[in-house]
Amino acid sequence: MSPEATPPDAQVAQDVALLLDENARARAALHAAIEGVPEARLLDRWFEGWSLREIIAHVAAWEDGFAAALESAVRGERPVIPGYENGLDDATDRFNARVVAALGETPWTEIRMRLQASAARHDAALRSVAASLTADRFEAGRSARRLASAARHYEEHTPDILAWRRREGI
Q1: How confident is the chain (170 residues) per 10-residue block, as mean pLDDT?
Q2: Is residue 1 part of a domain?
Q3: Total of domains in the chain
Q4: How many Cβ atoms from other residues are within 10 Å of residue 78's Cβ?
Q5: Is 45 a member of any domain?
Q6: What integer pLDDT is reported at residue 8 of this predicted model?
Q7: Residue 147 counted as domain residue
Q8: Range of the domain at 147
Q9: How many C-beta atoms surround the C-beta of residue 169 within 10 A?
Q10: What is the pLDDT of residue 1?
Q11: Which residues pair with 143 in a beta bridge?
């Protein structure tokens, strides 16, 4: 270790390990919720005008954005989600609209691959936090900590997907 390098913070490493586990559990629940949905039902508009296909693309895009922002934080830069226009009242709606508009005719298999790729990128970014950020930069309420939890977003959509499937007998 070079003289200017500092050893990893044990608390950050412990928090990262817990977050990795939480994220993995939430992802597994979402994957179970979408498993076996017939292709013909992927375009049904049931969630505030969105289809399952669009919801999953949206989840993948946000997680990829969170990963990019964590990567920035690890480099010592301000964490920024690419394509998110921070400071606008409707920034979230704009980001979501762009994700859905860009989806086009993307096949379901590719959307699922994007979800897996965003999860892998997010996990890698989160693992790098343990060796790079100090506890004060990773405490509750800080940007890096909020970006580290992909579980919240997965948990936001999973119950709705399960309720839709029950309602529709899918």
Answers
A1: 52 93 97 96 94 97 97 93 92 94 94 97 95 85 91 96 97
A2: no
A3: 1
A4: 10
A5: yes
A6: 56
A7: yes
A8: 10-168
A9: 5
A10: 40
A11: none
| Cα torsion angle, 149, 150, 151, 155, sign | positive
* pLDDT for 139: 85
What string of H, E and C letters represents the secondary structure of the chain?
A: CCCCCCCCCHHHHHHHHHHHHHHHHHHHHHHHHHCCCCHHHCCCCCECCECHHHHHHHHHHHHHHHHHHHHHHHCCCCCCCCCCCCCCCCHHHHHHHHHHHHHCCCCHHHHHHHHHHHHHHHHHHHHHHHHHCCHHHCCCCCHHHHHHCCHHHHHHHHHHHHHHHHHHCC
The token duo for 53 is: 């296909």
Quote the pLDDT of residue 3: 40
> For position 162, which CATH number holds?
1.20.120.450
pTM tops 0.70: yes
The one-letter code for the residue type at 129 is: V
Length of the chain counted residue by residue: 170
Which tokens sit at 55?
């919801």
Residues 116 and 110: their CA atoms lie apart, in Å, by 10
Joined tokens for residue 84: 């998110």
Q: Is residue 3 part of a domain?
A: no
